[in-house]
Amino acid sequence: MNKAIGKKLAAALLPLTLSFSAMATVINIPQETSATEEKRIVSAGSGITEIIYALGAGNQLVAVDLTSNYPPQVNKLPKLGYHKQLSAEGILALKPDMLIGTDDMGPDTTITQLEMAGLNVESFATDNSADNIHNRIRSLAMLLNKEKEGEALWQSIDSDLKAAEKLAEGKDKPNVLFLLAMEGRTPSVSGSGTEANSLIKLAGGFNPAEAQFNSYKPLSNESLLTLAPDVIIYSDRGRGLTMEQLLDSQPILKQTPAGKNARIIPVDGRLLLGGLGPRTGEIALSLAKAFYPES
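Below the sequence we write its predicted structure tokens.
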């Protein structure tokens, strides 16, 4: 090729070459968002918080409610009030991607405000049957891309629940009352619709107060004696109240079958707020062994 022509051709092609080169530097191929991208989560309810940690997603939590005190590392996180008295402003200030709780978190005005602000609010049923605990764990695991961990967690809980069920098999169920002992107040007894009532059932006991009332209610001495509990389980919300101290503060309990036979058992009240969580199977089995000591 004639050198002069070659130079002219090269000069003509140079701008085109530079144009393609420039295009190559500015064209960006869209990247898909990773399915495992971590979220900023606020949890409302101790049971929900415990499940999130048990699934290995505790590092995604940016704040929790006041009932969330387990596992211990949760106490390093900001606390945003009681799960039934949440503040929209406090939650939104943390710029979370999601609020996770149960259907008793609130108030409704706060939940509406959060949804209107565009926050993803995930609410799970507070029914604490074994099936619903399973569904809650499975749904949370899917939400957090922790399906394998969720299945392993449920298998562990289910194993303990089945062991508790086996202890009660073919035996008469003991009457079991749950007392919530508050300092300076008459203890309240759990009726239907409470986590305590569900735990009694899962452990193979019968709550005679279930048919009497819903939620918690202080009972007269006469009513307590009429219910005739064979076993009393109680929580003092972490004050360390012993069985002896409970009996001294409530002498009427000494006249119940449970008091006469010293079948009074403390439980961690944090298990009974915001839905039952990962320790449910372990605690149910422990209670079943106390309900059926001969097994």
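The beta strands are 41-44, 61-64, 98-102, 120-124, 176-180, 188-190, 216-218, 231-235, 264-266.
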